Amino acid sequence: MARLRAGEAEAFEDLVTRYQHRVFGVALRMLGNQAEAEEIAQEVFLRVHQSVAGFRGDSKLSTWLYAIASRLCLNRLATAERRMGRRGEETLGRLGATGDGPAGDLERSEVEAALSRAIAELPEDRRIVVVLRDLEGLSYEEIARALGLELGTVRSRLHRARMDLKDKLERFFP
Length: 174
Fold this sequence. Notes:
Radius of gyration: 17 Å
CATH topology of the largest domain: Rna Polymerase Sigma Factor, Chain: A
Strand content: under 5%
Structural class: mainly alpha
Number of helices: 9
CATH architecture of the largest domain: Orthogonal Bundle
CATH class of the largest domain: Mainly Alpha
């Protein structure tokens, strides 16, 4: 952070290199569209560059980045234009490992597609906590800080989101 605050270009490049895939992944999972996710990721790093002096260090740098990315994604999802045009949504990145031949690959592909659809159909407030917790691995406390929520609210939303996903996916897991 000291190097970033001092304005070292190499320090900013290191930050982008280290976190670009995570920030893009969150944006892609939230928005379901690669082009929009790329725009959001660029905007995140632009905002970080502009406001690095304002980072107090109360949380981890990654939590701060997730907070910026989450707010930008939620703002994008809230726009009327975005709600009207959710065509061409892309699925989440591959979740499973290689399978047991073509039948196993086909089944895994079907489950992944169903999971992607189920996550995309979650209300935005639930989707972001699932993405940050279950796909990005943030702690409950980090999610609460990133989203400006109470810890109980994070737990509640995550529980409801997981119940929604369970209902939508129970045909795959008898």
